[in-house]
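Q: Focus on the shape:
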Amino acid sequence: MKLYETLAADIAGQIAQGVIREGERIPSVRQTSQHHNLSVSTVIRAFLLLESQGVIESRPQSGYFVRRRPPGAALPTTAPLPPAPAEVARAPSLDISALVLTTLRSIDQGSVPFGSPYPDPALFPWARLNHYATSIGRRGGGRMPLSDLPPGNPELIRQIARRHLDNGLAVDVSDIIVTAGATEAINLCLQAVARPGAAIAVETPTYYALLQAVRRLGMRVLEIATDPQRGIDLAALERAIETDDVAACVVMPNFQNPLGFRMPEECQRTLVDLLARHDLPVIENDVYHELYYGDSHPASLKHFDTHGLVMHCNSFSKSLTNGWRIGWTLPGRCHAQVERLKFLNSPSMPSLPQLAIAEYLRTDGYDYHLRRVRKTLAQQASIMAAAVLRFFPDGTSVSTPAGGYLLWVGLPFGVQALELYARAQERGISLAAGDMFAASGAWRHHIRLNYSYPWNPAMEAAVRTLGLVAGELMEPLRRSG
């Protein structure tokens, strides 16, 4: 058993013996670290494991408490927990999943939502979308079972093709497959081009959901260095292709999560040409495409694809509504395989959300809505970056997002992201620790902050608090020189 497994078993044993009862608070991360002479990271992993097993629960600004069990439920066991690799850098997906779930639950319970991967729901035109959904439902238009089958509702597909055309990309409607968000689209594309054991080249850092998807499918994550202005290192990628069994590459060229860069068009073109020389498919995650700052929309890899190798994945979840999970893919020459996998994975998609979005795109002011959202996000990006540099200790760095709603923060020397995460949770503030964004553990001194929510005194106070906590974590280093 690893250290964190042993600690989790000890805590579960104390609960089973009644030392700590249901509803009672357990010692804090800091207290447990000091009492057991363990690192904060080890304690956090133990707490996350217990939370994923339903033994304890986190409460914002209060700490961790023993979860109340339903009548007749078994007491927590002190038996050995599932095995895990020794290195924190290669923590199993269970740990990352638990960390993500803890973050999202804390937001749902009222924490400051800096750790959210989703944009502020208040940015979306819910009233208009609900109006269309209600109107279509009353007319009986939502009961169209055959149009629910892959590739999706024909009217929505037509509107998606029209939207691509407005952005300078002519798309055949027969190329589009509607999916349950971009995540399903990426999963389907991965399954179409790779088998278990194959290596998938990804940017580092990259969005944690991609890392989990690759692992869940039994594939290997192959991390490629990524520049915060120009994107994935093309020379390093080519070396990896020539020396490893790379089955596909997955990139986010526009407003990458978490770095926020916009990959220059010449780099996008060179990347597509490179992969074409090796006849290697690339899965393009372009969910932030519409959230650009400035006057012109970005290009996408699909613009430069002449061989059908670019598998473009997109979604309305970041720009229009995150409640209905409607996305799509343009899988190129793998269209038949992806459509078949979509049918096997989920034979139909709800028609009402598809029709409501199609109606909104056809008749309402989508471009007006997007201009308002872009302006808001660009302003808040500048405010958040300035606040972080003002309140955090010297040595802090911030990214310069060209779009989207996420800020990547480099912490000063000595400040571990997981320790900051734990202390922030105790104060009712969520954030995304850099440990979540790589398999190699290279980003333990970074955090990601969501700036899509309205800036107000409470948000400013939360950033100030994070800066003070970061300073506290540096104090032992200062004292030791």
About this structure: The two ends are 36 Å apart (CA to CA). The longest strand covers residues 220-227. Residues 74-94 have pLDDT under 50 and may be disordered. The chain is about 45% helix and 15% strand.
